[in-house]
Amino acid sequence: MSNIEIKIQKLWKPKWVITKVDDLTGQTIEKLVICDNVILYQGLQAVWKLLANVGPAFSPIYNEANAEIIAGTSSASSGDQAQTGLLGTTFSKAVEATYPQTSGGNNENLVYRTIFITGEAEFAWNEIGLTNGVTVFNRLVQSLGSKIANQTWTVDLILEG
Q1: CA-CA distance, 75 to 70, in Å (whole number)?
Q2: Tell me, what's the pLDDT at 137?
Q3: 39: Cβ–Cβ under 8 A, 6 or more apart, which residues?
Q4: How far apart are CA 144 and CA 161, in angstroms?
Q5: Going by DSSP bridges, is the β-strand pair 38-39/138-146 parallel, antiparallel, or unpaired?
Q6: Per-residue pLDDT for 3 more than 80?
């Protein structure tokens, strides 16, 4: 583990929550909670530019107007922070209105939420990430299951402070 990874883990704890619902019955099929992923160098650079206002202006920011959750098919290793995005076939969708939101007793968490309805991203999900439509911030590689017709998947990315 590199020094930068250790520092990021201390400052930023990502948690992915994926809730899968059967549209025909309204029943929850499965709820996954995954506390892992890799912040890509380009995502880290975006944070530093926004935080310190250094270098060329970073745009677009990861706000309600630009943030998207992206799902993909690649199961290639996520250990390389130099990657610039998801590697397989992908489908991205904007975050829900009013997201991102803060949460926690001191508003120390940042939450992004996207809801993938039937007809969207119906393939084997092996990778997910947060993008602003230009720059992919992070990447999780894990078999998350196959999304099929008549399923709605709600994906929350919680950046815990």
Answers
A1: 14
A2: 92
A3: 8, 12, 14, 81, 137, 138
A4: 25
A5: antiparallel
A6: no
In whole angstroms, how far apart are CA 33 and each of 30, 36, 133, 156? 10, 9, 25, 10
The helix (H) or strand (E) run that includes residue 155 is strand 151-160
Query: What integer pLDDT is reported at residue 57 of this predicted model?
Result: 64
Token pair belonging to 6: 């250790």
Q: What is the DSSP string of 69-123?
A: EEEE---S----TT--S--SSEEEEEPPTT-SEEESTTS-EEEEEEEE-TTSS-S
Residues 112 and 159: their CA atoms lie apart, in Å, by 8
Task: Tell whether omega for the bond before 60 is within 30 degrees of 0, i.e. cis.
Answer: yes
Q: Can you give the pTM of this predicted structure? A: 0.88
Residues contacting residue 9 through CB under 8 Å, at least 6 positions apart: none
CA distances from 75 to 7, 110, 133 (A): 26, 27, 21
Give rounded-to-5 percent helix, strand, coil for the chain.
15, 40, 45
